[in-house]
């Protein structure tokens, strides 16, 4: 039977990289988004609103996917609203697809907030989780929209008899423009501004993150795990952490990034210095840089997501994840984190996003 993929959130870091990987493997691949783009050769785009079941029904009328990859969410003011809205996104889609009886597997991408708590809590309530983070660690006691999304998938799986997989990446590094959670591009933009203004590349995060061990997830590694779990019988109906497979300290990687841009790095110095404060008011600086080098995007807000980078780098503990579960099951993909960042920077130059 032909594999027909529906990539939900196909314009983001996870979704766009997954779509390219699926197409390269010969899958018929549909990309669903509120504002889809046609930048990926071979991707069949679908414009739809996940909060509107009628709109979804019309958009998907003639499409019967065998595999659904859910890679999107909507940020709201409270976690209660996050739960209501983001569980609805998943529920509405699976309800619309249910009568087709075509879906064999649903893969849901969440993240390490499963262990750390939602953004406003981020390891601040109760006991800090033990690291490395492992899939068998229990859910936290306070509200988390990841749990709500998982529960929707579990319920629909029982109803429609498809298999599922849950994927929990750390910070995702990869190419995508206009994404709300994009540390790689945010740091590239920050480094570019430092170079152009002669400023130091100042570490914005905590002492624990600066000195502690960490890991990240290359978007291409995540894409490969998503496909592996959806097509490997023994891997189905499980939750998996997913990272590059190496570990590092930010005080080492920060210098590597600074050296790449030929700028001066400055490490942790007694307190957190949020990047959001540093980049606030730099819109005109970036616009001038974009005009000088004829870059594609002159709007800083469409490239930088400093708030998300600050949340990741400001954590009060070192954060690394255990990959033993998927390794034992046969997933052996590895990527160097230094290469993840440096390859992204070269891609950004090639695409005229940074000079």
From TrEMBL:
Highest taxon, organism lineage: Bacteria
CDD domains hit by this protein: 5beta-POR_like_SDR_a (cd08948)
A Pfam family it matches: PRISE
SUPFAM superfamilies associated with the record: NAD(P)-binding Rossmann-fold domains
InterPro entries: NAD(P)-bd_dom_sf, PRISE-like_Rossmann-fold
Domain PRISE-like Rossmann-fold: 66-355
Stated name of the protein: SDR family oxidoreductase
Organism field: Epilithonimonas ginsengisoli
Native organism taxonomy: Bacteria, Pseudomonadati, Bacteroidota, Flavobacteriia, Flavobacteriales
